[in-house]
Amino acid sequence: MEKRIQLTAEDRASFHNHADYCVGTGRLGLGLQAEYQEQLRLVQSKCHFKHIRGHGLFHEDLAIYQQAKLPDGTVREEYCFTYLDRLMDAYRACGLRPFLELGFMPWALASGENRIFWWKGNTTPPRDESAWTRLVKATLTHLKDRYGEEEVSQWPCEIWNEPNLPGFWENADLEKYLRLYQITALAVKEALPNMRVGGPAVCGGNTIEDWMERFLCFCRDEKLPLDFVSRHAYMGAAPERKGRYLYHTMCDTDFTIEEVRRTREHIDRFPMFRGLPLHITEFNTSYNPRCPIHDTAENAAHIAGLLAGLGDVADSYSYWTFGDVFEETGVPFTPFHGGFGMVADQCIPKPTLSAFEFFCNLSGECAWRDDSCVVMRHQDGSWEGVAWNIQRKGRESLTLRLSLPVSGRACLMTRWVDEERGNPLAAWHAMGEPASLTGEQLTFLREAAVPGTKAETLEGGQEAVLTLGPNAALHFALNPAPLSPDDGYDYSWYGSDPT
Amino acid sequence: MEKRIQLTAEDRASFHNHADYCVGTGRLGLGLQAEYQEQLRLVQSKCHFKHIRGHGLFHEDLAIYQQAKLPDGTVREEYCFTYLDRLMDAYRACGLRPFLELGFMPWALASGENRIFWWKGNTTPPRDESAWTRLVKATLTHLKDRYGEEEVSQWPCEIWNEPNLPGFWENADLEKYLRLYQITALAVKEALPNMRVGGPAVCGGNTIEDWMERFLCFCRDEKLPLDFVSRHAYMGAAPERKGRYLYHTMCDTDFTIEEVRRTREHIDRFPMFRGLPLHITEFNTSYNPRCPIHDTAENAAHIAGLLAGLGDVADSYSYWTFGDVFEETGVPFTPFHGGFGMVADQCIPKPTLSAFEFFCNLSGECAWRDDSCVVMRHQDGSWEGVAWNIQRKGRESLTLRLSLPVSGRACLMTRWVDEERGNPLAAWHAMGEPASLTGEQLTFLREAAVPGTKAETLEGGQEAVLTLGPNAALHFALNPAPLSPDDGYDYSWYGSDPT
Amino acid sequence: MEKRIQLTAEDRASFHNHADYCVGTGRLGLGLQAEYQEQLRLVQSKCHFKHIRGHGLFHEDLAIYQQAKLPDGTVREEYCFTYLDRLMDAYRACGLRPFLELGFMPWALASGENRIFWWKGNTTPPRDESAWTRLVKATLTHLKDRYGEEEVSQWPCEIWNEPNLPGFWENADLEKYLRLYQITALAVKEALPNMRVGGPAVCGGNTIEDWMERFLCFCRDEKLPLDFVSRHAYMGAAPERKGRYLYHTMCDTDFTIEEVRRTREHIDRFPMFRGLPLHITEFNTSYNPRCPIHDTAENAAHIAGLLAGLGDVADSYSYWTFGDVFEETGVPFTPFHGGFGMVADQCIPKPTLSAFEFFCNLSGECAWRDDSCVVMRHQDGSWEGVAWNIQRKGRESLTLRLSLPVSGRACLMTRWVDEERGNPLAAWHAMGEPASLTGEQLTFLREAAVPGTKAETLEGGQEAVLTLGPNAALHFALNPAPLSPDDGYDYSWYGSDPT
Amino acid sequence: MEKRIQLTAEDRASFHNHADYCVGTGRLGLGLQAEYQEQLRLVQSKCHFKHIRGHGLFHEDLAIYQQAKLPDGTVREEYCFTYLDRLMDAYRACGLRPFLELGFMPWALASGENRIFWWKGNTTPPRDESAWTRLVKATLTHLKDRYGEEEVSQWPCEIWNEPNLPGFWENADLEKYLRLYQITALAVKEALPNMRVGGPAVCGGNTIEDWMERFLCFCRDEKLPLDFVSRHAYMGAAPERKGRYLYHTMCDTDFTIEEVRRTREHIDRFPMFRGLPLHITEFNTSYNPRCPIHDTAENAAHIAGLLAGLGDVADSYSYWTFGDVFEETGVPFTPFHGGFGMVADQCIPKPTLSAFEFFCNLSGECAWRDDSCVVMRHQDGSWEGVAWNIQRKGRESLTLRLSLPVSGRACLMTRWVDEERGNPLAAWHAMGEPASLTGEQLTFLREAAVPGTKAETLEGGQEAVLTLGPNAALHFALNPAPLSPDDGYDYSWYGSDPT
Question: Considering CB atoms only, which of B68, B78, B487 is closest to C68?
């Protein structure tokens, strides 16, 4: 397929880019691990995300809530912030602020045995509401004391995770969630009046409209604090299982965006909530951490499509998750295992990392946007953009012919990932899909993961031709590049004659 | 062109690989610079050279030889080892031992004004022979005290550099060089009896045979210590100047190897010197630090050819030089400037770095060698090798069809540099050949400098087909790779169907 | 107290220094954490331990043993080495080899519910012996494949931990331990014939002699592999509880050494086991990870005493544990919390780290040893040594007057920790014992943790006087130090006149 | 001596703290060296200086100004910014902006042979004024292009260095300096209209008043740009030479401050210049880089005195220099050699580094200042301050008794350097003043260089008693520190009873 796009310096298009606002992570306790932190540093060196959101703040492994049995048989509540401090310090060292998710129930506060994941997170209501709100307030107050009220007030705070699923909230009991929201939101504001609080953090599916309606009515009627609304969005449909893995077809990016738009419109039907920020606190292609799509170039192409459009309907969208240190279904056996991460274990970038890098670093004003590219213009007259070519089993290439007004000699720099480049999965397969990598294999895979690069000279307003192979995600920059050779340097003297 | 090579586990060929024995460096004083050390660390992370040799041990900037004027008007000799220690410590931190070159005359000891290079190294005989030998002995004794006699005795020690050129040794005066060798070699052995000493460090050209003959006769007749013979070898011929730059045609690799072979045979005609080690203490394509070939893929291809053959005629061959922090003709204006280095300034790898990486890490036994490849066999039944395709202005590809006995599923991993891959020069040209790089340009160039990678599955003894574009240097490894997929993982479910 | 020690170059004393052979760690799974690895790097930068031993190789969090339920309802055993590789790679990057402890029972293989520690390690026999030995063999075979047989054969392998305690081995059932040893030792040798295997890893107390007797008889009678014998040794007695903490008086170092000597003699009474290596695979003052002695200078003094003497009776002694990332009794609330570590959380050295540093770096031949010092002589005529002054509530100083033959000007360098220097605990107390440290507090505590230093000039064989305050551990070095001032440098021109 | 200072929360005193505004460096070309950058990183990790000023921007080794001889015999001017970029990037990586000193004459532009220092900086007027201003404009324009106009406009720009000394400016020719200032200041503004430009960068002495008068009149009369006035200030008097070293007595801090005050008043007598910023672009005790005072605690005490007072009379004061990589009198033979640096070679801190650290990190409002201390109060009710005790050969201690209103339990944290602590010089002397340090000696000296620390508990408004030994510089912080022990933790159970 081929497209021709001709732009002038005056062209403008709508594009809301929140790609770098937030990123997801496996449960917070894993943030103490060295491998996790290395993957995070790698991702941040390219994407510079601003916030990070993950599960399990109050899960056992962070060990915040403690009960000491006293000699007289009574129990004293204690709060242990040793690991929380260590984690928050690590995030800050990576330039990240938390997007707090208040959730998972300390076992000692749980009202039931409903547990989820390999790591057995408890997902039942508190058996003592005031103990729960004391815990929330103590935690936020501690963070305020350590990092300052001004700082911590900038951390958004979401209450619970996907309560409309029975695994994440016992019986998916809506009434009990509303009650939880009520007491928790008030507790948050008590501790930190300027912290932004929100919910209901629901996943998509057929219950979301009911939940959203009831949640918004409840907040309105009870006059509860509500600074933002949150939901999740995944593209996976029609799952099929094979061994440890789940495969499914993916919905269109448009379908997914429209799904979110309905929530946006739902909110806006409440006059008092019109324009209230909507955060997609999780999104991805598949919702399953053992779906091989996450390791592929196809994933990067889907995500590029979403990143171009989600800003129309939401104020942020947090990719679930930045890395592959993640234990929801247990410890993986192999470096590639369909994990959510943009980075495979041992810091091997997957194609999706580049898709994020491309969007997170875009600047300038949008001059053009369609279903396969975004083009930005800088004040200094240079241009950049991102393009993508989603091919589910198809093999069609996409050629974009861009006429962008740059006078004189210019340089077109493209960087891309696709089935061939920046895509270590095929190489790992050729190696036999080894579980333990040798040093040589690891070096090879990291080199195979580097995006393709190409730099071309364009003369006198010459058209920029971008050819995207199947499932490519591509960044280009077109800069004025007058030739200023050092006296006598002829780069073409040696070597074979170029074609 | 196409070749077919069929090997069994029993095939053996001759190949002497000393690629990692030594590497050259600009004048030693530059070794104190941060950029120099970063380039060196990068090179060492890939090549793990064992020794390093450079000019200017006794030049002013290392400040070893000092004269203090005393109140009574007399002069006291002093030796300052502050910078020497700092330099040696830096080399050791990179896993390197020096290959000492005793040379350049401290200005205060010089008998004349003959100077060379932007940095004005004095190249005249000492005006006081005993002051010179005191300096040599004091320096070696200091090194012995600091690093231990056993350690320092392993550092080869060459006397002077290219005395058969008048720029490097006043009037290219052979008699005076012989005298210098005599007093210096004896001084070395006095300080460190087990240090290996050698010379005459001559460059090629029409005087080399005379020099070699006289030098060997002199050592024999005077019963001087001589532990190795050294010379240089460059491929450049017929220079042509253009602005600041020099261009010339390159001799064949065979021509260069034969030239060295004549020196080998020359030595062996002296019964007492038969088999004495011969070190090529400098080699490269062009001998000029402003020859653009050094920045190109063609350079890598030539060097691969030399690395395959030089071991037949020499015990080591030291590439001049590892990096581009080098000031012989002044400070360069641009990151690429035809410098000798395997790495351009700001740590941008050039193609030649990969050629060295490929050879320095070869192991196993040689099963095949010809004029375009070397094939090694490992005890465990895996194979690896290096291939190259020198094309001066030609555009012919080279296809190698290798039949190597590996049973079952195998993985063929290739990494290569050529005109397209691992070759940042063309990208820099497209950028306009900027002198100052932006951060984005630097990142782009470093990615462009990563070698190409390809991993293929071979089944049941299938032929390995290596296609080398013009001026490619390529490494391949063929390893048994039984497929061991994790239960249910299907890497090909998603993405476009492979062709 | 004052002692006078006069030595000549000929004096020799017996001293077996195995301080650097092995160090302990909390459960292995914690080795994945960033803070753990930072503490380990700090310790290794000073002590350079060779081996590391910890619990929980087969505990859930390393996730090695897995059971997959197949669609047909059967169960397939799987071994996951993802985390094991990551851990072993981290150890090797710190220059460490494991001292393997085969132990803790995967929950899926456990025969009962006996569990220990906050992290719930199962300590029951396998319910399927062959599944257990398959696990052992699969694990060792994997390690052999990854790191090489020669390398892995150098890792000692101990079977289980403290089976004579019912917490660590259900009912402390000796017969069942012997059976476990039998099948496991044979499995080890099957996988790696040259791996050294041993047991019974018992703790001290009144059952140890019975256990040792039965174990040795059993190995002899059953002709089982036995390459070394292991036991533990702690100095704590008469515990008293206070809140979360345990306090007890400490036995003498001599008492502890004698206790080990009895085991040594016990082994030697078996002719076939005479001289068999005896490894103390855990030792410390208190055996409790909430005993404040571990944070004190007194601890360092006790340990110094043990390090001087334990080599008489054992082939190694592994301090339990190097760092404070340790969760046996849960997550600590405060940086100092009586943890076993030589280093408090956030990498604050405790005095005991210096005691180890002093012993681990000792070299030369022992010239003198008594109950408060060890003096070593180097071939080059210099001297060094370690001294200590254990004071339980006492306040006596110890003065050592050493006459060591060094001719001419000499330099006496001492470094020490005691109640005042290298002891951050008192400073932390003055700060109010904060749970969360500010950056300023952390910097202050790290500076407070630096050992005291003193350098003195001794002239003409002058006596070296070492004054040790209460609970000091001190290292000294006495080196020839002829004065070689730079011309005109007078260090005493400025500043107040020295006393 | 003893002083009693009683303060309330309302006390205020005048104190202008510009300690962190700027620091000096040896010639800029040395900034490319690895050791230089390590020393700078160390200093910046403690002091966080904002600007850095050094000599030799246009000296040969930065190689900016070049002349190429063309084939037709004419000469083409060229500007090479390779090293300048590398240097500026290194400064920025350390968080530093340059305080530019436009100076030293490229040899090719020099009108004479007047040279200074081991590195032979040319100090004559340009022989072609327009070539000089082209150079200035080209350099500033390049910096603007690379780092942005907004950024570079924040770099102050001083014209030449100490032109009132004949070594630094041929014949100390005032008229020629005024001409240089005129053409250069105008060139600066032409390139960067918002850059602040100033002079005359004179040293103290008997010519300074004349120079200042003439300079200010000239600027006024010629209506030249003048954004700040600059001068230098050193305390050294009555020099005495001994070998390579210079010793002199030091003027009082008051004397030095008064000297600067006269310049301040001089400026203010010009109505149009009243209040114009005055920068002391160099200050120190001795002006000689081979004066041992720089290595001593006495130096730190003098500097503390100056840092407390110089803000009364100047807008900044730049310590000459941060480190000991400095070659004005050649390469030093020994790690301590009286160099200006706060850090000796191999990154050994000298006492003066702590004096700067103490002042650079002071915050809050000044409550008290006298000739031996500064006391600051924070909004949260805590206190901090710096005290010093200058003793030239005297041995008097200084005791400060501070009554500072802090209610409840408080912690007094003091850190200090003096003759005993944080002072590695005496240890190095005891070692024999070795030129080459062993690894053990280096470790020892770095530990000896750590400041003393002490943390005390004060109860109920108890007086803080600070005892300063001779030549101490001390920082204290007094913070509320309620005791919050973990349940049962008794830090005093073990160890000797405190006195």
Answer: B487
